[in-house]
């Protein structure tokens, strides 16, 4: 028996609410594993899912479904974005933290893999603002920017690596990112506190 859309929506809303409370992006792998176990045991989450699927499948559904999409949903992207209270605020806050005041995001240009959109400054500058919330994925930003430029696009890219205060980007990794950006002609910024 399949899980109804209504039940999926209720469960995802609860997952995202709790993920925000524990600041999911800053959790270690072990802490995330503990959360998955808690969710499977929670009567409102796992308890409801296991009415339709075995416990093992409920855990996989949570991990490979909603929680795999959580980072994108926080920024208003994907099928689960509707379960995040104010996703566009996260994008606006990130851009302001990275570039300062005076930049506007064109939310209609949002794309994924990597997350990116067009931004415009008050002075008339235009750029592609792309970001990841895991510094290990920086290479995906670089590749996307280089690929687009190699295909003839002239709009400059700004690559942003976002991190939490609890799990900041190590200084040696920041320095490496900046060297790669300089070598490739790409602006690189690091933002903490997201």
Explained architecture:
- Strands 1-2-3-4-5 form a five-stranded mixed β-sheet, sandwiched between helices.
- With 194 residues, it is of the alpha/beta class.
- Helix 7 links the parallel strand 3 and strand 4.
- It contains eight helices and five strands, in the order H-H-H-H-H-H-E-E-E-H-E-H-E.
- Helix 2 crosses helix 4.
- Helix content is 48%, strand content 19%.
Helix/strand layout:
Layout: H1 5-21, H2 29-41, H3 46-49, H4 55-64, H5 66-74, H6 87-99, E1 103-111, E2 115-121, E3 126-132, H7 138-150, E4 157-163, H8 171-184, E5 187-192
Parallel strand pairs: 3-4, 4-5
Antiparallel strand pairs: 1-2, 2-3
The helix fraction, in percent, is: 40-55%
- Determine the number of helices (DSSP H or I, runs of at least 4 residues): 8
* Amount of beta strand: 15-25%
Low-confidence stretches: none
Major sheet: size, sense and barrel closure? 5 strands, mixed
- SSE class: alpha/beta
Please list the strands of the largest sheet in the order they lie side by side.
Answer: 1-2-3-4-5
Oligomerization state of this entry? single chain
Large-scale geometry:
elongated
Query: Average pLDDT value?
Result: 91
Terminal CA distance: 39 Å
**Topology order in helix (H) and strand (E) letters:** HHHHHHEEEHEHE
Radius of gyration equals 18 Å
